[in-house]
Amino acid sequence: MRVSEKALILQSIKHGDKKYILKLFSRQHGMLTAAVNVGQSKMAKIRSSSIMPLNFVEAELIFKENKDIHLLTELSVYKTQSNIHQHMSKLSIAQFMHEVMLKTLKDQHGHASLFEFIEDCFDFLNGANEGYSNLHLHFLLELSKHLGFEPQNNFSVSNLFFDVREGRFGETAMVWPFGLDKEESAVFSEVLKCNLLAARFSREEKHLVLDVFLNYFAFHIPGFGVLKSPEVLKEVFND
Questions:
Q1: Domain limits for position 161
Q2: Does 229 lie in the same domain as 152?
Q3: Where are the alpha helices (DSSP H) in the chain?
Q4: Residues 225, 171: one domain?
Q5: Please, are residues 210 and 184 in contact by the beta-carbon 8 Å criterion?
Q6: Other CB atoms closer than 10 Å to residue 187's CB: what's the count?
Q7: 58 near 100, Cβ under 8 Å?
Q8: DSSP H helical ranges for 105-225
Q9: Would you report the helix, strand and coil content of the chain in percent, each value rounded to 5?
Q10: How far apart (Å, rounded) are the C-alpha atoms in residues 85 and 69?
Q11: Are residues 68 and 106 located together in one domain of the fold?
């Protein structure tokens, strides 16, 4: 079956002289793995510059029934992140979102709304001159909603402590990484109800919120583990 797909390239792995294996997050079919032959000449249908990670592409694929790897026959880039690569702060956020996606986007079901959300985040990051320093936090919160494990903000005088495992506030304080103390829980409750893109945090608060989200994802996404990009992100926004 031949299909046309909008997709985001997440990974490109060389497999021989001209063959590459691509990991794609597509608008209609979710995560896909595809083999593609790449040429270097100007006449080549698909060149190596087209299959760079974080390129948004229009792809022609031949789906192979009962196979894990499909065949990509044609590809055109309809969106690159040219401005992102000119700013270290933007690049660090893009690399963070990229690493999170590699850890979380695993299934092969259609996710049109999730694809559009991811595309919107990169459009915003690429075009913004300011106001993007919390995009990584916004991305994590909204991604948790799309993936079905959004933390619940039931913070109250009787539910003062966030339980990472349950994804909600409860009456009992728990030690990290299973939960947050009273002050941390109050901060996290405010985070869950504010506009994260417009919010202002101290350096300590921003680092706390990032650590809480990452810990939360690690509890709810099998194999999420420890990411490399957050330390770079903290250094870049260390103000």
A1: 84-236
A2: yes
A3: 88-104, 112-127, 135-147, 182-193, 203-220, 229-236
A4: yes
A5: no
A6: 17
A7: no
A8: 112-127, 135-147, 182-193, 203-220
A9: 40, 25, 40
A10: 30
A11: no
One digit per residue, pLDDT tens: the chain, 239 residues?
A: 899 999 999 999 998 888 999 999 999 999 999 999 988 767 677 888 899 999 999 999 998 777 889 999 999 999 888 899 899 999 999 999 999 999 999 876 768 999 999 999 999 999 999 999 999 999 999 999 999 999 999 999 999 999 999 999 999 998 999 999 999 999 999 999 999 999 998 889 999 999 999 999 999 999 999 999 999 998 888 76
Number of C-beta neighbours around residue 124 at 10 A: 14
Residue that the structure tokens 């101290």 belong to: 202
**Residue 156, burial from CB neighbour count under 10 angstroms (0-12, 13-18, 19+):** exposed
Burial class (CB in 10 A: 0-12, 13-18, 19+), 80: middle
Alpha helices in 40-106 (DSSP H): 88-104
Whole-angstrom distance, CA of residue 127 vs CA of residue 163 = 37
Q: Are 213 and 137 in contact (CB under 8 A)?
A: yes
pTM of the model: 0.94
Cross-strand pairs, 61: 3, 72
Residues 52 and 88 in one domain: no
Beta bridge partners of 60: 4, 74
Total domains, the chain = 2
